[in-house]
Amino acid sequence: MQSFATLVTAFEERFSATLPFPAAPANLYDPCRYLLAIGGKRVRPVVCLMAAELFGEINDDAWHAAAAVELFHNFTLIHDDIMDKAPLRRGQATVHQKYGLTAGILSGDVMCIFAYEALAKATRALQPMMQVFNRTAIEVCEGQQLDMDFESRDNVTIEEYIRMITLKTSVLLACSLKMGALTNGALGDNANKLYEFGKNMGIAFQLQDDYLDAFGESDKLGKQNGGDILANKKTYLLITALAQADANQRAAINELLAGNAPDKVQRTLELFSATGADKACRAAVARYSDLAFAGLEDVAIPTARKEPLRQLAAMLLERDK
Amino acid sequence: MQSFATLVTAFEERFSATLPFPAAPANLYDPCRYLLAIGGKRVRPVVCLMAAELFGEINDDAWHAAAAVELFHNFTLIHDDIMDKAPLRRGQATVHQKYGLTAGILSGDVMCIFAYEALAKATRALQPMMQVFNRTAIEVCEGQQLDMDFESRDNVTIEEYIRMITLKTSVLLACSLKMGALTNGALGDNANKLYEFGKNMGIAFQLQDDYLDAFGESDKLGKQNGGDILANKKTYLLITALAQADANQRAAINELLAGNAPDKVQRTLELFSATGADKACRAAVARYSDLAFAGLEDVAIPTARKEPLRQLAAMLLERDK
User: Fold this and answer.
1) Which of A186, B25, B97, B176 could form a disulfide with B48 if both were Cys (CB 3.0 to 4.6 A apart)?
2) Which of A28, A82, A114, A182 to mutate to test the interface with B (most CBs of B within 10 A)?
3) Domain range holding B71?
4) Is A141 an 8 Å CB contact of chain B?
5) For residues B235 and B164, what is the distance between their CA atoms, to the nearest angstrom?
C-alpha cells in the first residue's frame, strides 16, 4: 500500500513522461502542455490509483483511468476559467488569458478528447468505466451550469447548493475512486461504496473550502481571505447566514452585498458568526466527513488496506490545522 | 438496401425520439435541443448506417454510432461558430449568438460528452470504434486549429490546404463509414477501405464546395456567390490562383485581397479563370472522386450492395447539375 506522497510522485513521473500531445499544431497543444505543467494536487488520479490498490496491484488500466480523470479535470479548468473570466489559475495566467479565447476553447476540447483516448486504452472493464465516466462528465457540466445560474438568483437553497457542488466537484472524485476499483475487478457493491465515499468526501472538502476562504489563515492558503465575499459568491456560509438571519441581520447582509464597503469582508465575517453560519458550515463539514469515513468502513476489504485513503481524507479535511 | 432518403427519415425519427438531453438545467440543454432542431443533412449518421448495411442488418450498435457522429458533428459546429464569430448557421442564429458565449462553450462540451455516451452504448466492437472515433475527434480539432492558423499566413500550400480540409471535415465522414462497418463485424481491410472512400469523398466534396461558393448557381445553393472571396478565405481556388498566376495576375489578386472593391467578387472570379484555378479545382474534385469510387469498388462485398453509397456520393458531388 503506497502513501499519497509516493503515488503523487509516481503519477507525476508517468503522466509527464507519457503526455499524449504531439508537437503540432503548436497553437493547439502548447496551451495543453502549459496548463498541465503549472501543476495541481493530482488528488483525482491518485485516489483512482489508491482505489485500484485496495483490490490488488496497480495495473496499466488504473494508470490509464488516472490519466483520464486528470486530463478531464484540466479540460474543465480551461473552460471554467473562460466562463468565470478568471485571469489566474494556480498563480499563473489562465489559458485563455495567455493564449486567447479560441485557443482556450479548442485546447480544452482536445484535452477532453484525450481524456477519452486515455480511458479507451483500458482493456478490462472499459464499458462500465465509460458508463461512470460519461455520467460524471455530464454531471460536471450540469454543476457548472447550476453554478452560473445561481449567480443571477437570490433564492438559492442549501439543498440546491449542495447539489451544485456535488455535481460540479464531488462526482469526479467519486468517479475516480470507482474507476480505480473497477480496474481490479471490484464488485459493484464495493465500487459503489467507494463512489459514495468520494462523493461525501468531495462535498466535505468543498464546504471546508468555503469555510477557509472566509475564516482560514490566509498565509497558509497562499491567497487572501474573503475572495468569495468580495465576489458575492453564494457559498454555504452566505446562503446559511441569509436563512438564519433575523430581520436586522438580513438587512445588514443585503446592504453589504449591494455595495463595496472597505470593511465588507470583516463585517460579513461578523454576520456569518452572529447568524451561526460559521458553526453550521463546520457542522456540515463534519457531517459529510463522518458519512464519508463510515462509507469507507463499509467497503468489504481488510481495514489495513484502507489506511492510505483514510489518511488522505484526514489530511485534506484538516489542512488548516 | 435502403436509399439515402429512406435512411435520413429513419434516422431523424429515431434520433429526435431518443435525444438524450434532460429538461434541466434548461440553460445547458435548450441550446443543444435548439441546434439539433434546426436540422442539417445528416450525411454522417446516414453513411454510418449505409456502411453497416453493407455487411448485414442495421443493428442497435449502428444506431448508437450514427447518433454519436451526429452529436459530435453538432458539438464542433457550436464551438467552431464561436471561434469563427459566425452569427448564422443554416439560416438561423448560431448557439452563442442566441444564448451567449458561456452557453455556447458549455452546451458544446456536454454535446461532445453525449456523443461518447451514445457510442458507449455499443456492445460489440466498442474498443475499435472508440479508437477510430478518438483519433478522428483529435484530428477534427487539429484541422480547426490549422484552419485558424491559415488565416494569418500568406504562404499556405495546396498540400497544407488538402491536409487541413482532410482533418477538419473528411475524417469524420470516413470515421462514420468505418464505425458503421465495425458494427457488423467487417474485417479490418474492408473497414479501412471504406474509411479511405469516405476520406476521398469528403475531400472531393469540400473542394466542390469551394468551387460552388465561387462559381455555383446562387439560387440553387440558397446563398450568395463569393462569400469565401469577400472573406479572403484561403480556398483551393485562391491558393491555386496565386500559385499559377503570372506577375501581373498576382499583383491584381493581392490588390483585390487588400481592398473591398465593389466588383471584388467578379474580378476575382475572372482571375480564377484566367489563371486556370477554376479548371484545376474541377480537376481536383474529379481526381478525389475517382479515388473514392475506385476505393469503393475494392471493398470485398457484392457490387449491388454498394449501390446506395455510390448513388449518395454521386448525388453529393453533382448537386450543381
Assistant:
1) B176
2) A28
3) 1-151
4) yes
5) 11
